[in-house]
From TrEMBL:
This is DUF1275 family protein. Keywords: Membrane, Transmembrane, Transmembrane helix. The chain crosses the membrane at residues 20-40, 52-70, 130-151, 157-177. Signal peptide: none annotated. It comes from Alkalilimnicola ehrlichii. The keyword Phosphoprotein does not apply. The keyword Transmembrane helix applies.
Length: 185
């Protein structure tokens, strides 16, 4: 979103409307996905609950709709894809007090560098934090690589793999999540 919001500012400063609507729709889509996550999950702390499973199923549905629209060349596919990203990013914003971002890595790389710097200075660093952040970075890189390879071979049908993964993980989460949840005040 940093680049999209900066791009909006540049377009406004240059009074350029070439892609203003597209960029604004990407920001709005991402925001809408995060908003939807907040409405359904009711908090940003990762806990395996049935609502979390439902969010994975919703994300799979959004990605499927994105793929179908993109295959038809419908422009609305772009902000819908951004909505899936915003939803994903907000689904697990924190874990054990650690801020998590799953759709961008600026904060992940920053946190890894700061943790390593602290460790090199002899300060105590929790290994699980470093391991979790490193696994997110590696997964992000691997996902980007796999996505690019699939896209080059299958075009927009590649989104079907991401959608299927969300559906499968949602169904698995549904089976392991507690059947009854305490109401959230």
């Amino acid at each position: 979103m940093s680049g999209a919001v900066a791009h909006l500012g540049i377009d406004l400063a240059l009074v350029s409307s070439d892609d203003l609507l597209l960029i604004a729709s990407i920001v709005a889509g991402f925001f809408g996905g995060a908003l939807l996550s907040g409405l359904i999950l009711r908090d940003t702390l990762f806990r395996m609950k049935r609502r979390y499973a439902a969010m994975l199923l919703v994300e799979g549905g959004i990605l499927t709709a994105t793929m179908l629209l993109a295959l038809r060349g419908v422009d609305f596919a772009v902000p819908l894809a951004a909505m899936a990203c915003g939803l994903q990013n907000a689904m697990a914003s924190s874990y054990r007090g650690l801020t998590l971002r799953t759709t961008h890595v600026t904060g992940v790389v920053t946190d890894l560098g700061a943790l390593l710097g602290n460790r090199l200075r002899g300060r105590q660093v929790k290994g699980w934090k470093f391991g979790l952040l490193l696994s997110i970075l590696i997964a992000f890189f691997g996902g980007g690589l796999a996505g690019a390879l699939l896209l080059s071979q299958l075009q927009m049908w590649a989104l079907g793999f991401a959608a299927a993964l969300c559906f499968m993980l949602g169904l698995v989460a549904l089976t392991i999540a507690p059947k009854y949840e305490l109401p959230v005040a």
